Amino acid sequence: MLMPMSLAKPDRAMWFATITTLTSVLGGMAGYAIGYFALDWVAPLIEAGGRWASAYDNASSWFREWGFWTVLIAGFSPIPYKVFTISAGALAMSFFPFVLASAVGRGARFFLVATLLSWGGTAMEDRIRLYVERIGWGLVGLGVIAYLALRG
Fold first, then answer.
1. What is the DSSP string of 50-113?
2. Fewer CB in 10 Å around end: N or C, the chain?
3. How many domains is the chain partitioned into structurally?
4. Which backbone phi and psi does 91 adopt, to 5 degrees?
5. Which DSSP letter does residue 125 get?
6. Cα-Cα-Cα-Cα dihedral sign, residues 123, 125, 126, 128
7. What gap in Å lies between CA 2 and CA 19, rounded to an integer?
8. For the segment 16-65, what is each residue's pLDDT rounded down to a tens digit?
9. How far apart are the C-alpha atoms of 136 and 11, rounded to whole Å?
10. Can you give the pTM of this predicted structure?
């Protein structure tokens, strides 16, 4: 909805990006709550699964260590953000860094789109669809490279 609204009223594009960012972060907080509270129902199954418990512990450790960057990259990338919000809650990521990473990642994506559309108009729309995906996947790739480099 951000793109057509920004195209229809370019002078209000930044306002639309602000509202989109705020509501997306609120939705992310709801996803976090789902993950956080649903984990209690699933934890006995994880523990009973034997090897699942150690895999879950490893994933929890990684998410706590890199969680901020994971959420930030997911917020900007074409990867479904809601998957990461629920995972952040399930793995009990610290809430303030989660909200901050969500706001920065989602805000960067939405304000980039709104700025480009208000500047370039309809001619920019097709380019945005093409390049936002490429930039998002490039950011994911850089995140993986940074993880591998720092893991060493």
1. THHHHHHHHHHHHHHHHHHHHHHHHHHSSS-HHHHHHHHHHTT--HHHHHHHHHHHHHHHHHHH
2. C
3. 1
4. -95, 10
5. H
6. positive
7. 9
8. 999 999 999 999 999 899 889 987 776 676 677 666 566 566 666 667 77
9. 26
10. 0.75
